[in-house]
Design goal:
8-stranded parallel β-barrel; 3-stranded antiparallel sheet; TIM Barrel; single chain; 11 helices; 352 residues
Length: 352
């Protein structure tokens, strides 16, 4: 980690978390966060749902909610990034404070509630994004919407021409009853509408589905069935959790979604369970608690074809991305793999 990054992280972690987050976006746009692009190698290059990635490490949605820092983020080391979530109408989200650092747990809790500038502003920014690099958009629904399934379609219609993939987010715990859309019947209808809209775009972009970690085996079976039948292009496992097991931070009792280190084992188990259900039919993106190359490798071996992270940046800075990529590359060398695809799912049976 460079000295300037160390100083910046120390300063950000002394201020209000949401203010620190805004400072990070501003620092990116001011060119204060260095980076020459993603670390890559023949072992790390991979294809996800038809998208060619220089490495499998992506930025999870929620960091750049309003697509304000796409160009600098693409230089930090990520193989792909996801912005949003975007909703049809702008919304302020939940009252502040709504973001909490759990330093002792290397975690955070947020209850933002899909605060964003709305699809029209976000689409305008996406239309001016760099032509290189893989950029996706997380689709959301307005809190006051009378028909949330239509909201996802609206955002995709408006923003779809400017992104390389889009994600159906039915797993945020911070919008009331949103997770109810993960049930088989509701999810089938929702995904069908989004896929039909995608097929009408000039370019048929991949559609991903982001799920919660707080799922029963029956939930996982239902979602897997919908993913197969609807021909979803990838499943992102997982979003944040509402559980609080084993936390020691003073903020452990805050309402919202927990992310970071405590989520690693739970999200990895759910990931592997989806891998056991879906096999080679639907690729998986592993998210939750990744902060080291070893943890990234564990997700790959549990069934992930690609990865995303976010909370670890709060504690490790953006240089962490290429450190993980280089470390993952070395782990593949040590195990004799010529490409990361050869390692996908080799240990998923451990989680049955």
């Amino acid at each position: 980690m460079r000295l300037i990054e160390h100083i910046g992280l120390a300063a950000a972690n002394r201020m209000d978390p949401e203010l620190g987050h805004k400072l990070a976006i501003k620092s990116l746009n001011m060119g204060l966060v260095g980076g020459k692009g993603p670390y890559t190698s023949p072992r790390l290059r991979c294809t996800l749902a038809g998208l060619d990635l220089p490495n499998p490490i992506g930025l999870a949605a929620g960091f750049d909610k309003n697509a304000q820092a796409i160009a600098p983020l693409l230089k930090t080391g990520f193989g792909f990034i996801e912005v949003g979530a975007a909703t049809p109408e702008p919304q302020d989200g939940n009252p502040k404070p709504r973001l909490f650092r759990l330093k002792e747990d290397r975690a955070s809790i947020n209850r933002f509630g899909f605060n964003n500038d709305g699809m029209q502003v976000i689409a305008d920014r996406l239309s001016r994004r760099p032509k290189t690099g893989i950029v996706g958009l997380n689709l959301g629904a307005n809190k006051t919407s009378s028909h949330r399934a239509i909201d996802y379609v609206k955002v995709l219609e408006h923003c779809g021409p400017f992104v390389d993939f889009a994600t159906i987010n039915v797993s945020s715990p911070n919008t009331e009853k949103l997770r109810d859309l993960q049930g088989r019947s509701a999810l089938t209808a929702l995904v069908a509408g989004v896929m039909e809209t995608r097929d009408q775009l000039d370019i048929k972009i991949p559609i991903f589905l982001k799920v919660a970690p707080d799922l029963t085996p029956a939930d996982i079976e239902d979602i897997s069935y919908v993913a197969r039948m609807s021909r979803i292009d990838a499943v992102i496992a997982t979003n944040t959790t509402i559980t609080r097991d084993g936390l020691i931070s003073g903020h452990a009792d805050k309402t919202g979604g927990l992310s970071g280190a405590p989520l690693f084992e739970m999200s990895t188990r759910v990931l592997a369970q989806f891998s056991n259900q879906l096999g080679d039919e639907v690729p998986l993106i592993g998210v939750g608690g990744i902060a080291t190359a070893e943890q990234a490798y564990t997700k790959i071996k549990a069934g992930a074809s690609a990865l995303q992270l976010y909370t670890a940046l709060v504690y490790g800075g953006f240089s962490l991305v290429n450190r993980i990529a280089r470390g993952l590359d070395q782990l593949l060398v040590q195990d004799g793999f010529s490409n990361i695809s050869e390692a996908v799912g080799i240990e998923k049976e451990k989680y049955r």
